[in-house]
Amino acid sequence: MWIIDFFRSSVNMEATTSSNLPSINVQGVGFEWDPADGLVRVYGMPVLTMWIESSLVGMMLGMQRMVGTERFKLCMQRGGIESIEGDWGVISSAPSFEAGFRALADCAVTCGWGDWKLHSLDRREREAIFHVRNNFEALYQKALGVDWGTDMTGGKFAGYCARLFGVDCWATQTRFQARGDEYDEIHVKPSTISLDDQLKALLHSGAATAADLAVALKRLEDENLERRRAEREAQERLSMIESLSAPILEVWVGVLALPIVGSLSGDRATTLMERLLNEVQRTQARHVILDVTGVEVVDTHTADSMLRVARAIELLGAQCIITGIRPAVAQTMVALQANLADIVTQATLRHGLAYCIRASK
Questions:
Q1: What is the Cα–Cα distance from 27 to 129, expressed in whole angstroms?
Q2: All domains of the chain in start order, with CATH
Q3: How far apart are CA 127 and CA 311, in angstroms?
Q4: The pLDDT of residue 257
Q5: Does the predicted TM-score (pTM) go above 0.70?
């Protein structure tokens, strides 16, 4: 049988099966018990056997109480969707989806997943209907007196159909064995809403639990961290751009030049002043040329910033020379009553450098 060949190729049966260990074969499915290692294996892979009406009931009830019914159902179906990798290996190895599903169902019935039937499959509409009898989910819910739904198994069916149809799918249950129906009936169709969107809908509907609120808070914290990181990176890029757009150049021995392009806003002026004063102190420069050829418009803040930079340079014992003042800028500075009486001005950067060289002799 091809299903046995598939598992033999996936698992080293000789390495994981010993004739000295108790074992049994049920419908072609091999079970093996290893008491020394505390393991039960099916096809050589560890499995769990659990009493449904006690241990499983306690585990599922505890989870449901912690997160609430709606979130519990979403998580169970999502868990089913995300647990089909090995299952799909069986299905995809068969001649057809139907044959692969029948083979997988033969394995499922021996392991407590119930009796699976593919009731209908419409490839054109990308829909499928499954019937399940005596699935562990229906049995533990019947013992509890609830009908939350066979969501993990439904999630597996949705995962199979997603692989088959090539689109995300979601499972909706229409019959419930826990309610007294003969079987669980599960409809699978393409999904129009993501799991995240469904969780958000819980929050907006007022059906949020403490777990939902914790998830929402964590998402908000992550978004804030990401926003702060983005702002920090943007500021770093801005600082880099500003440093490149206003490089401090040593154009002669003891002469620094700072070409300024654009306006000198408060933050930018402060940053440039700090960089320039540090460089004056480091190089022991005697002259600093502020070239404003690239400044087309001057307002009160820009004029004031230029004067503050010039005064700060003089306090370190260097002389400030301003070059490249445009006629329109000169008129504006006069109108603003900017006091340039004590500051040397030159027409161009070349004239400013020539002045510094003469003054150094």
A1: 25
A2: 50-209 (3.30.1380), 244-360 (3.30.750.24)
A3: 79
A4: 93
A5: no
